[in-house]
C-alpha cells in the first residue's frame, strides 16, 4: 500500500479577519477552523500521516488546543513555518521521511470533503500532479499598469485553483528544492511543479471548498456545515 502524507500549512496570520487570534484557531461551530481541516485527513483511510506547519510561537498552542484535544493521532509532527507559504510547505516537505505521494492543503480551508480528497488521491496515481479547482463564475479582466483593460480572457478556460493539490513526493520535492535554490516564488505549489515541465491535471472541486479569509467566510462556512448535518 502506498504511503500518502498530508501537509497542512497553517502558519498564516490572517490579517483580514481583524482578530487577535489567527484565523486557523477561530471557532467554527465550537471547534477551531484547523481542527475541521485536520479531521478530514484523520478520518480518511487513504492518508498515512499528517504534518501540520504552524508559526513557531503557536506550536504548543496548536498541540494542546487542536491535535491533543481532538486526538488526531495521524499527526506525525508540528513543524515550524517560514516567512511565506512556500517556505512553510518546503519545511513540511523536508520533514517527510518516506512517502510515495504528498497532498498539500490549506489549514484555513475546513470544508474539504472526503470524497474530494479521495478523488485527488486516485487521480495523482495516474497523472503525478493534480490540483482541485472550480471554473470561475465572473468575467475576468487583465489590466495594464495604468488600470485600463488590456485583455478579457475567455472565461470557460479559466479555473480558480483550490486545495488539496496532490503530487508524487519525489516530483514536488524536486520542484521546491529547485525553486528555493534559484530564488523562485510561486503563489501555489502547482506553479513550481509546472516549472519542471510537468503537466498538472485539474479535477473539479467545489464552490463550498472555501478558504477562511474574512469574517463573512466564517458565516458562510457555518451555514454550509449546518446544511450538511441535516
Automatic annotation (TrEMBL):
Gene3D superfamilies linked to this entry: Spore Coat Polysaccharide Biosynthesis Protein SpsA, Chain A (3.90.550.10)
A single GO BP: isopentenyl diphosphate biosynthetic process, methylerythritol 4-phosphate pathway
Keyword Nucleotidyltransferase in annotation: yes
Keywords: Isoprene biosynthesis, Nucleotidyltransferase, Transferase
Top-level taxon of the source organism: Bacteria
Catalytic activity, reaction form: 2-C-methyl-D-erythritol 4-phosphate + CTP + H(+) = 4-CDP-2-C-methyl-D-erythritol + diphosphate
SUPFAM superfamilies, sorted: Nucleotide-diphospho-sugar transferases
Function: Catalyzes the formation of 4-diphosphocytidyl-2-C-methyl-D-erythritol from CTP and 2-C-methyl-D-erythritol 4-phosphate (MEP).
Name of the protein: 2-C-methyl-D-erythritol 4-phosphate cytidylyltransferase
UniProt source species: Acetohalobium arabaticum (strain ATCC 49924 / DSM 5501 / Z-7288)
Amino acid at each position: 500500500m502506498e504511503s500518502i502524507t498530508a501537509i497542512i500549512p497553517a502558519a498564516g496570520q490572517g490579517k483580514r479577519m481583524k482578530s487577535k487570534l489567527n484565523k486557523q484557531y477561530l471557532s467554527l461551530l465550537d471547534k477551531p477552523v484547523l481542527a475541521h481541516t485536520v479531521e478530514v485527513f484523520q478520518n480518511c483511510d487513504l492518508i498515512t500521516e499528517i504534518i501540520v506547519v504552524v508559526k513557531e510561537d503557536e506550536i504548543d498552542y496548536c498541540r494542546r488546543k487542536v491535535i491533543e484535544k481532538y486526538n488526531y493521532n495521524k499527526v506525525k509532527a508540528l513543524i515550524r513555518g517560514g516567512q511565506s507559504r512556500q517556505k512553510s510547505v518546503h519545511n513540511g516537505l523536508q520533514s517527510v521521511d518516506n512517502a510515495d505521494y504528498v497532498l498539500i492543503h490549506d489549514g484555513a480551508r475546513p470544508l474539504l470533503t472526503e470524497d474530494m480528497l479521495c478523488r485527488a488521491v486516485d487521480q495523482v496515481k495516474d497523472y503525478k500532479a493534480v490540483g482541485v479547482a472550480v471554473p470561475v463564475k465572473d468575467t475576468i479582466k487583465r489590466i495594464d499598469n495604468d488600470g485600463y483593460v488590456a485583455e478579457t480572457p475567455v472565461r470557460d478556460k479559466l479555473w480558480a485553483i483550490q486545495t488539496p493539490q496532490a503530487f508524487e513526493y519525489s516530483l514536488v520535492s524536486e520542484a521546491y528544492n529547485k525553486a528555493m535554490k534559484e530564488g523562485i516564488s510561486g503563489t501555489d505549489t502547482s506553479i513550481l511543479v509546472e516549472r519542471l515541465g510537468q503537466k498538472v491535471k485539474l479535477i473539479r472541486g467545489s464552490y463550498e471548498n472555501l478558504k477562511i479569509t474574512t469574517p463573512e467566510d466564517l458565516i458562510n462556512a457555518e451555514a454550509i456545515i449546518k446544511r450538511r448535518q441535516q
